[in-house]
Amino acid sequence: MTQERIIEMMRAATRDVFGTMLGIELTDLEAFAQERAPGPSEGVLALVGLAGQWAGSGTFSCSANSARHIAGQLLMQPYESIDDEVLDAIGEVTNMVLGNVKTSLEEELGPMGLSIPTVIYGRNFTTRSVAKSQWIVVPFGCNGETVEVHLCLAPSKEAGGLTRLAKDQLAAVLSILD
Questions:
Q1: 176: helix, coil or strand?
Q2: Which of 89, 130, 139, 144 is deepest in the core (most CB within 10 A)?
Q3: Pairing of strands 118-123, 112-114
């Protein structure tokens, strides 16, 4: 699987969710790779974990203004500030986008689990991943601002598929869904 193919998957999934669920048209910006975990110095960042024979993380990040707009489009009401509904909406958009990416990846990489999103909002924060893999960053123009989808994937350390931590996390998620 090439980096270009993964970028295609990320673009298609993001455009599909934004167009279908939010009625927002996105503009493709130039994708790139970076060595450190991406994250805005301020704004909203949602993170999900991926686990399978390949494992990693995916994130969605945007400004507070974009988060309010995205939540407003999803929930069909205006938001003047970042509240629990806005954070939940960004978590749901992240789940839809990266869930679609995961589905596309599974066709070539095998079954994968997807964790529940964690959403962070604030100023002057950074993110760090202990993974030494490269992150693919796919930015989009969205109503005069930039939103980004990030993905970091590497072969799982456990040859048979899911690592023990990923299995425990997946079991916890599945028990919630029962």
A1: helix
A2: 89
A3: unpaired
- 157: domain CATH number is 3.40.1550.10
Question: Measured in whole angstroms, how far is the alpha carbon of residue 150 from the centre of its chain?
Answer: 6
Residue 42's pLDDT is 80
> Among 98, 119, 96, 97, which residue's Cα sits nearest to residue 45?
119
Rounded-to-integer distance, Cα 161 and Cα 113, Å: 11
DSSP class per residue in 33-99: EESSPP--SEEEEEEEEEEESEEEEEEEEE-HHHHHHHHHHHHTS--SS--HHHHHHHHHHHHHHHH
90 is written with which tokens? 């960004």
15: burial class by Cβ within 10 Å (0-12, 13-18, 19+)? middle
User: How far apart are the C-alpha atoms of 24 and 19, rounded to whole Å?
Assistant: 5
The pTM of the full predicted model, rounded to 2 decimals, is 0.84
Domain count, the chain: 1
Predicted confidence band of residue 161 (pLDDT cuts 50, 70, 90):
very low
Range of the domain at 132: 3-177
